[in-house]
Design a protein that fits this description.
Blueprint (H helix, E strand, L loop, with lengths): L5 H8 L5 E4 L7 H8 L7 E8 L4 E7 L6 H7 L5 E3 L2 H8 L16 E5 L7 E5 L5 E6 L3 H4 L2 E4 L6
Parallel strand pairs: 3-5, 5-8
Antiparallel strand pairs: 1-7, 2-3, 2-4, 6-7
Length: 157
């Protein structure tokens, strides 16, 4: 890759190893990306940006095989409710576009919550900050790259 994304630069600066996976075609559906790349959809996490009542911003990460439970998500951060940021708000508020949103290097500070299923294996994939680009990282390296919490935030399957 000729240029690196800000999340890649962030991991380089911290000397955290990662693998880059690129998918041609501009896919934004995580299940399609996992299928095309032969990845376990339970290990590929989508990054969902939300806002609470007091304009506090939250990032929730759930496997592409599931959906975010907004009630569980809100409870995990001490809010009564959270709502999804609209696609047209992502770029000005977070610096990312729909389908290329990373939990790393957002324009505004966000509190990050990762679904507890991330702990089920040693690695996970998430967006590298650009549509079609993913990072494969070790779950054990997550505390070195971001402040976050694990919580059960996924809708029952």
């Amino acid at each position: 890759m000729e240029t690196k994304t800000n999340p890649m630069r962030h991991l380089d600066k911290l000397k955290i190893p990662y693998e880059v996976v690129h998918t041609e075609g501009g896919f934004t559906n995580g299940m399609d990306i996992a299928r095309i790349n032969g990845q376990d959809p339970n290990r590929v996490f989508k990054t969902l940006m939300t806002v609470g009542k007091e304009k506090c911003y939250y990032c929730f990460m759930v496997p592409v095989s599931g959906e975010l439970d907004l009630k569980k998500a809100a409870a995990s951060v001490g809010e009564k409710s959270v709502s999804m940021l609209k696609s047209d708000q992502l770029l000005p508020l977070m610096g990312y576009v729909h389908g290329g949103c990373s939990p790393l290097c957002t324009k505004r500070p966000v509190r990050i919550t990762i679904d507890s299923t991330a702990q089920d294996d040693s690695y996970m994939f998430f967006s590298a900050g650009k549509i079609g680009w993913q990072l494969r990282v070790s779950v054990s390296d997550l505390p070195k790259m971001m402040d976050f919490q694990f919580a059960d935030i996924r809708k029952p399957i």
